[in-house]
UniProtKB/TrEMBL annotation:
Any Gene Ontology biological process: pentose-phosphate shunt
EC code: 5.1.3.1
Keywords: Carbohydrate metabolism, Cobalt, Isomerase, Manganese, Metal-binding, Zinc
One GO term describing the cellular component: cytoplasm
Function: Catalyzes the reversible epimerization of D-ribulose 5-phosphate to D-xylulose 5-phosphate.
Pathway: Carbohydrate degradation
Cofactor(s) this protein requires: a divalent metal cation; Fe(2+); Mn(2+); Co(2+)
Taxonomic source organism: Bifidobacterium fermentum
Name of the protein in its database record: Ribulose-phosphate 3-epimerase
Catalytic residues (positions): D33, D173
UniProt keyword annotation of Transferase present: no
Residue sites binding substrate per the record: S8, H64, G140, F141, G142, G143, D173, G174, G175, G195, S196
Family classification: Belongs to the ribulose-phosphate 3-epimerase family.
Amino acid sequence: MSIQIAPSILSADFANLERDLHAIDNADLVHVDVMDHHFVPNLTLGEPIVKRICEVTDLPVDVHLMIEDPDRWAPEFAKLGASSISFHMGATHAPVRLARQLRAMGVKACYAVRPAESVEPIFDILEEFDMILIMTVEPGFGGQKFLANQMSKTRRLRDEIKRRGLDTHIQVDGGVSPSTAHVVAEAGADVLVAGSAVYGSPNQAQAIDDIRNLAQA
Ligand code: DX5
Ligand code: ZN
């Protein structure tokens, strides 16, 4: 399975965003965390900045919505040029309707689960999604400690995807670094988000290569 690395710009320098977007040219996606001070206790950025990111980067833009009422707001983000949009199980009212709406707009639909949420409820609607996002920290902040207890859930989801012959991606977000890359890939994740491990490194391109190589080792 080929591994994709998605640096999270949450740990970038927001005053030098264009520079920091170009520093990750060897990544596969750029992960953009949108927070609203309601679904999570942090506030980041909204539509105007996501729009500029989509214009400035050559990478596919993966928007992670940590906001209330994604049923209302996700389609607005889909209009801005994002390649994929994740919305949270605990925030959406009609995940199937929203996933279909995003796909109809040409955007990949991704469903995100927090550490205390199970993946089994998703099994009945798995075909509706291009990717499932498993949080390996409580959403809200970069630089938190990786929750290894999320790996059994990741394995169960990968087994189900394989059993049904689907090509659904599994994204893991939170505490991914060179030291956890192998564990998450071995559990079945193929899209690895890394914020502090990339932007906290003096050489971002090297950090991306290190995470990719260790995941594939
Ligand atoms: C946290 C965000 C993550 C965050 C990850 O709520 O969803 O994408 O940027 O940061 P690290 O990789 O530092 O844990
Ligand atoms: Zn994220």
